[in-house]
């Protein structure tokens, strides 16, 4: 963890801490990354959109592993029930339902083969390492830091609406059905944030805890940002696709 | 792990397995990466050489964590003694000795501040995630796979001599003293390989074990390659340095 040195001041009020968390997003959330500007602005080729969908699937597929790791560390049934909704959102309650299934439909919608995507064999190593770092972070750090690392969802409604409208406008191979993954996220993410932000503002009381939750959110922004670095490097300039990775 | 499906053939002989391991290096070792060609060929700016030294320090600094994790899993004193030499190589036996210390001298030699390097605060997230993935791999996979993942050292004498001669020739700010890290590696790496390769050839007998050690070596090549992807992306084209990372 970076930046864990406690600053020499009194703890922030809950309102000040929320503002500090939002400031992390304003500086580091991946809506600011050049690859997202390219993706949403219509400058991607179909192959680049495929590479994005293929790699992002690995992130989607590991979110329940991250959430289950956190649930296994939560001390009360009340907290575990609250977090269990996230498993339901991603894994569904029957075959063919849930966020991972909807992401597979998105990947098929942009022309990828479902089995290739599910195998995750052709993703970039940079994607795998960043996503695995997130799961490990939630396993190995405090419950407070693990919950704080989920708070990038505070910033996601904005990027989702920008992404959906931008991609529908600019790519004739993308339809509303393809992007159906994102519709429930617009209600799930704010509901999840209500709980997680409330928990963090209530439990991060000391200067040290507040520094830790801010560092956790910076870490999570790095996880998202780094995945786009890997995509932008491999698929925008020619000659940079690493050995073994997807070739559009 | 990728590519774990056992191929439908008999196990390889030790000689065939060694050839298959060497073929992984011929395709995926990071001497082939564009950033290394740039670094060794004199096309890097001093700032790019600094970024390389700063980020590579994190790899160096975590190698003893990786080796200690493996030692903690080895079953006999004989095996642990063998592997313990690596701790000595990297951590030394007195202050101011060992590979990590020599890497710090390299970093200082190219103009970096020692405290900044040791803090690792300014490294690229892609570096951190790749290196941490290596430590986690050694903790979580079989001892056989963990040992196999060290076998990129089979390929390192070639890259070291190319690097040292290329950097001395092309950069007037680099001296033999700066690159003193690499001199003992030329004898340590072959000695380490003798043991690790012998262990792998002896213990990877089944088709499944052979597929696993080949996948472990591919994984390790990805760890090295991905670090150069992150450097090449962030420091070669303008505008790509992620928030919070070193700015030359």
Element order of chain A: H for helix, E for strand: HHHHHHHHHHH
Q: Could you give the distance between the termini of chain A?
A: 36 Å
Give the biggest beta sheet of chain A.
none
Q: Which two chains have the most extensive interface, and how many residues on each?
A: A-B, 33 and 33 residues
> Total number of β-strand segments of chain A?
0
Mean of residue pLDDT values of chain A: 94
Overall 3D form of chain A = globular
Count of alpha/pi helices of chain A:
11
| Oligomer kind | homodimer
Helix/strand/pairing class of chain A, anyone? mainly alpha
- Integer-rounded radius of gyration of chain A: 18 Å
User: Could you tell me the strand content of chain A as a percent range?
Assistant: under 5%
**How much helical structure, as a percent, in the residues of chain A?**
55-70%
**Unreliable segments of chain A (pLDDT under 50, ≥5 consecutive)?**
none
Summarize the structure.
Chain A is an all-alpha fold and 248 residues long. The first copy, chain A, has eleven helices and no strands. In chain A, helix 9 (156-170) packs antiparallel against helix 10.
């Amino acid at each position: 963890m970076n930046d864990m040195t406690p600053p020499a001041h009194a703890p922030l009020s809950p309102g000040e801490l929320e503002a500090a968390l939002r400031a992390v997003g304003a500086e580091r959330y991946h809506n600011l990354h050049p690859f997202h500007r390219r993706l949403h602005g219509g400058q991607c080729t179909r192959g680049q959109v495929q590479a994005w969908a293929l790699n992002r699937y690995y992130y989607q597929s590991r979110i329940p592993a991250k959430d289950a790791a956190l649930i296994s560390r939560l001390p009360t049934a009340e907290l575990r029930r609250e977090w269990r909704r996230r498993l339901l959102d991603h894994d569904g309650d029957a075959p063919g339902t849930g966020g991972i299934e909807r992401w597979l439909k998105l990947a098929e919608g942009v022309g990828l083969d479902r089995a290739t995507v599910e195998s995750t064999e052709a993703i970039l190593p940079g994607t795998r390492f960043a996503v695995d770092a997130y799961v490990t972070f939630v396993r190995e750090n405090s419950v407070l830091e693990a919950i704080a690392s989920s708070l990038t969802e505070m910033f996601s409604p904005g990027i989702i609406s920008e992404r959906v409208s931008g991609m529908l406008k600019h790519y004739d191979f993308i339809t509303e059905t393809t992007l159906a993954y994102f519709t429930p996220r617009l209600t799930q993410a704010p509901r999840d944030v209500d709980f997680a932000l409330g928990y963090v503002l209530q439990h991060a009381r000391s200067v040290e805890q507040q520094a830790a939750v801010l560092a956790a959110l910076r870490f999570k922004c790095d996880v998202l940002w780094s995945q786009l670095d890997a995509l932008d490097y491999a698929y925008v300039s020619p000659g940079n696709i690493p050995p073994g990775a997807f070739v559009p």
